[in-house]
Every structure is written in structure tokens, then in C-alpha cells.
Amino acid sequence: MDSSNLKCLISREEIESTVKRLAADIRKDYHDKNPLAVGVLKGSFVFLADLVRTLDFHHEVEFVRLSSYGSGTTSTGQITMIHDLHVSIEGRHVLVVEDIVDTGNSIAFLINYLSEKQPASLKLCALMDKPSRRQVEVQIDYRGFIVPNVFLVGYGLDYDEKYRNLPDICTLQEVGEEE
Ligand code: 5GP
Ligand code: MG
């Protein structure tokens, strides 16, 4: 894998300590609630895997998948559910786990969709927040990093399905682009 055009923005060590901080905050609120963590595929799978292994209380994990960027780097306002929940969330404490909130369109769609299913509570944990791109208001209850308006890959995030395996979060420089 050619990594010459990758520049590390958030190191694996920074990610690790931030995941621990988020887990400690989540623990305070959910340790006796058997919450349901809902991971948003595909981008959140690495974050979710690290996060749940830091939670030392009972919880359950489910996944949803929303329509994504395709092979480009900008989102449209048109969101669809590709993979829905297969369990009822009525009366459950639901924690949505997302990799990054960018325009906010995807997560606003999902939160609205889930809230109609009468969960006991519904909160959002996002590893990254790119507020400069926001188009719709989103409440992030547990936030890892605020990031600038750059396209990021690694730690589950892809470009054209590649780079999800990188342990750090990186920017992708175009070939020939100046430092
Ligand atoms: P939004 O609907 O908030 O614009 O973006 C939704 C999804 O787009 C995020 O959950 C994430 O999967 C993807 N996304 C947003 N920003 C980035 C980015 O910088 N890099 C990558 N790889 N995906 C992103
Ligand atoms: Mg995502």
C-alpha cells in the first residue's frame, strides 16, 4: 500500500486516550442501563470495536448502514437506509456511534428515524466533528475530536473503500499537491 500521500492528523495514541475519555463519560451515564450501541456502518466499525472493549458493563451492539458518499468526497442531502435494525428499540437506551459528523445530514436522518421508534433515550457519540461543514443542527452528546475541513481517512474511514485499516487518522494529499 503506497502511503506517500498520507499525512497523520490524529495519532493512534491520541485516539486511544480519547476513546478512554469517551468511554468514561459513557460509563457514568449508562453503566446500569444495558444500553444498545448502534454503530453506523461502515465508517464507525473500528471506533465502535475499540469503544465497546473499553466499556466494562453490559450493553448490546447493533448496526445500521446508510447510503454513503459512493466514491466521491461530498455528501448529498438524500439519505437512505441500506441496512436497518433487526431488533426493537422501544424502551431501550440507544447510543448511536458514528465516525464523523460532517454536514450532519446522515446523522440527523438517523436520529429522526430512531426517535420515532420510542427509545427510552437516544444519544449520539461521534469520534469526530467537522462543524465548519454543518448544514443541519446535530446534538453530539459525546464528542471525540473537532477536526478542520479536510478529507480524512484511516481508523475506519475510507477513500473509495481504501485506507480503513490505517491505525491513525490521516489526510490524503492529491498527487502533486504541495505540502
Ligand atoms: P454527513 O452526512 O454528516 O455529511 O456525513 C456522513 C458520513 O460521511 C460520515 O459518517 C462519514 O462516513 C462520511 N464522511 C464525512 N466526512 C468524511 C471524511 O472526512 N472522510 C471520510 N472518509 N468520510 C467522511
Ligand atoms: Mg459514518
Question: Bound small molecules, which ones?
Answer: guanosine-5'-monophosphate, magnesium ion
Count of helical regions? 3
How much is the average pLDDT? 93
Instruction: Give the DSSP E fraction (strand runs of 2 or more residues).
Output: 25-35%
H-E string:
EHEHEEEHEEEE
The biggest beta sheet is recorded as: 6 strands, mixed
CATH architecture: 3-Layer(aba) Sandwich
Question: Unreliable segments (pLDDT under 50, ≥5 consecutive)?
Answer: none
Q: Given this structure, which CATH class is correct?
A: Alpha Beta
Strand order of the largest sheet: 4-3-2-5-6-7
Q: Percent helix among the residues? A: 10-25%
N- to C-terminal distance: 21 Å
Global outline: globular
Task: Give the total of beta strands.
Answer: 9
Description:
- With 179 residues, the protein is of the alpha/beta class.
- The protein has one domain (12-150): Rossmann fold (3-Layer(aba) Sandwich), CATH 3.40.50.
- Helix content is 21%, strand content 28%.
- It has 3 helices and 9 strands.
- It has helices at 12-30, 45-52, 105-115; strands spanning 6-10, 36-41, 60-66, 81-83, 93-101, 121-129, 142-146, 152-153, 169-172.
- The two termini are 21 Å apart.
- The structure holds guanosine-5'-monophosphate and magnesium ion (MG).
- Magnesium ion binds next to strand 5.
- The site of guanosine-5'-monophosphate (5GP) has 19 residues, from strand 5, helix 3 and strand 8.
